[in-house]
Specification:
It is built from 3 helices and no strands. It has 99 residues and is an all-alpha fold. Helix 2 runs antiparallel to helix 3.
């Protein structure tokens, strides 16, 4: 019985190449997903700013809608910060791994 040696570098290179191929095929596109999320966050923040400006100028009478827009923007920002923190934490954990 012959036992073949394990070549870790070839396996990692093959895995990275397969992942890149899937990304090119449209399966996984981290950059586009991140851009969409940031654009959505920016849109929600701008909508809240617009609602506050319209309330201050007297264009909006329903303060309930303004509070909802501001809270939606606040929660979106908190979510984005938590996701960023988790990504940084994962990155630091990977950087401290022994290879």
């Amino acid at each position: 019985m012959k036992i073949a040696p394990v070549n870790l570098q070839q396996q990692v290179a093959r895995t990275v190449a397969e992942g890149s191929a899937k990304a090119r095929e449209g399966g996984i596109d981290f950059k586009a997903g991140l851009n969409r999320a940031i654009e959505g966050l920016n849109r929600v923040q701008n909508e809240a700013d617009d609602m506050v400006a319209r309330m201050v100028t007297g264009e909006v009478d329903d303060i309930h809608q303004v509070v909802l827009a501001v809270e939606k923007a606040n929660l979106s920002m908190q979510l984005a910060v938590q996701v960023r923190n988790k990504v940084l934490e994962a990155y630091q954990e990977i950087m401290h791994m022994q290879v």
